[in-house]
């Protein structure tokens, strides 16, 4: 539906329900993660088995988002969004009823498919439904809802776990998900704009062969070793699948991802900046909890409050970034965001064994503000660089590329830390702190490249204006 046909009340309703759905989705990541030890004890799974409760979401969302991004233009973005939210709620209900680990994993798979369908559609619908002059503000509000969901997930999960067990977490997601589904069905009426075109089946199959294999190889390579048979096989399959995918896309009339859109230099710069930013800040999610508890001696509660500073800072900065991107130059705002992220990583690399909690909190706040400033402004740049019919695929790329880049960044950080600390990294607080400083210091040059790329996007944006 074109933006001019929406009343102010309809716009507010659409933004509200979309943000509520995003909050629920990202809240579930943290709340379910908190329950993993309890689930492991109940079903008696190994660590390698239980981690698939989390990996199921990461791999499925990243892999299927592209397919649903293109399918949304064919079948209607509103239709797929409604189906995706409903599938998420249904999967949560199945998870609450699960009586075995395979049943629970199946339920997580249903939730992940729903998320893979709904997440790219939500961003694409917002970009499509609101005028470009207000798009930054809308995307900033949406990013803030995601950040609040991330921040509150572990707390909500912990409370529900203590009150009634892990099934209560799934029941909560089912009940709230059902309410959100009903609201989405009421507000997003109809299927949305549809284009009768052929779906790229072979490209989708090649991507579904290669992309999950790449992610699984990266995830397991850091834990079981890069020479392990599983990792080698994953990378071999990934190479075959992704090379085949590129070949198919170049020859297909209506490809899943039209690689020609990357000839747009502003879009390419925005996507490269996105990838580099996730490589920079995602390792914090792994390193900071270990550093706070194992090196600085923070309790689990204290660590949780300190870690919440990052998403809280993001939630506060994102709406401001969106308004500034609408009023001034989106590329300049994104460049400021990248600069703050780099400053945050450089500051984190200076934290040692004698750092104060206040210093860590300040660094996390700086990093969160950078993420909040960068994300909506960079998204506005990306959507301005493509045609309306590519919004769904672009939204999928923003989500999927970010996930893959975050996995790569965490892998790089872990490898650097192990290179520096060796076998002593888990035995000595000083060694862990020094290894962390070494790893994040090496990430800073990547950040400098990201700043240069963001500046290039700024110049390209200026040319277009």
Query: Which secondary-structure class do the elements indicate?
Result: mainly alpha
Compressed to H and E, one letter per element, the order equals HHHHHHHHHHHHHHHHHH
Helix content: over 70%
User: What's the mean pLDDT score?
Assistant: 83
CATH superfamily of the largest domain: MFS general substrate transporter like domains
Rg on CA atoms, Å:
21 Å
Number of helices: 18
CATH fold category name of the largest domain: Growth Hormone, Chain: A
Describe this entry's structure for a reader.
With 465 residues, the protein is mainly alpha-helical. The chain has 3 domains: 1-191, MFS general substrate transporter like domains (Growth Hormone, Chain: A, Up-down Bundle), CATH 1.20.1250; 200-253; 257-465, Growth Hormone, Chain: A. It is 83% helix and 0% strand. The chain is built from 18 helices and no strands. α4 crosses α6 and α9 (201-224) packs antiparallel against α10. The protein is globular and about 60 Å long.
């Amino acid at each position: 539906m074109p933006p001019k046909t929406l009343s102010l009340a309809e716009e507010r309703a659409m933004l509200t329900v979309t943000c509520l759905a995003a909050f629920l989705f990202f809240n579930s990541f943290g709340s379910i993660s908190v329950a993993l030890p309890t689930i492991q004890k109940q079903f008696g799974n190994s660590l390698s088995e239980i981690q698939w409760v989390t990996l199921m979401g990461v791999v499925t969302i990243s892999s299927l988002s592209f397919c649903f991004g293109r399918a949304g233009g064919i079948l209607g973005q509103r239709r797929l969004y409604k189906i995706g939210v409903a599938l998420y709620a249904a999967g949560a209900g199945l998870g609450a009823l699960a009586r075995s680990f395979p049943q629970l994993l199946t339920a997580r798979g249903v939730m992940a498919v729903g998320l893979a369908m709904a997440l790219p559609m939500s961003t694409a619908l917002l970009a499509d439904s609101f005028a470009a002059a207000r798009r930054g503000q809308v995307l900033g509000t949406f990013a803030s809802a995601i950040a609040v969901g991330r921040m509150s997930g572990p707390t909500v999960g912990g409370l529900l776990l203590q009150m009634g067990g892990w099934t209560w977490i799934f029941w909560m997601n089912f009940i709230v998900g059902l309410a959100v589904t009903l609201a989405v069905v009421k507000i997003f009426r109809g299927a949305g704009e549809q284009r009768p075109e052929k779906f790229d089946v072979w490209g989708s199959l090649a991507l579904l062969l290669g992309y999950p294999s790449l992610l699984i190889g990266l995830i397991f390579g850091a834990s079981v070793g890069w020479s392990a048979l599983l990792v080698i096989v994953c990378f071999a399959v990934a190479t075959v699948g992704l090379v085949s995918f590129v070949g198919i896309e170049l020859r297909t009339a209506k490809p899943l991802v039209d690689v020609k859109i990357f000839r747009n230099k502003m879009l390419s710069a925005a996507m490269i900046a996105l990838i580099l930013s996730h490589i920079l800040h995602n390792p914090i999610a792994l390193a900071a909890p270990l550093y706070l508890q194992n090196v600085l001696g923070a309790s689990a509660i204290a660590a949780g409050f300190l870690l919440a500073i990052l998403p809280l800072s993001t939630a506060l900065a994102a709406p401001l970034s969106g308004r500034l991107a609408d009023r001034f130059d989106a590329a300049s705002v994104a460049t400021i965001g990248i600069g703050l992220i780099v400053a945050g990583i450089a500051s984190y690399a200076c934290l040692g064994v004698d750092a104060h909690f206040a210093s860590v909190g300040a660094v996390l706040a700086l990093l969160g503000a950078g993420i909040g400033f960068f994300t909506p402004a960079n998204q506005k740049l990306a959507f301005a660089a493509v045609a309306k019919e590519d919004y769904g695929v672009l939204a999928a790329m923003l989500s999927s590329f970010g996930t893959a880049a975050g996995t790569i960044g965490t892998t790089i950080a872990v490898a650097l830390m192990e290179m520096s600390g060796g076998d002593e990294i888990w035995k000595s607080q000083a060694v862990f702190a020094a290894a962390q400083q070494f790893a994040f210091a090496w990430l800073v040059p990547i950040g400098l490249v990201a700043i240069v790329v963001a500046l290039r996007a700024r110049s390209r944006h200026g040319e277009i204006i």
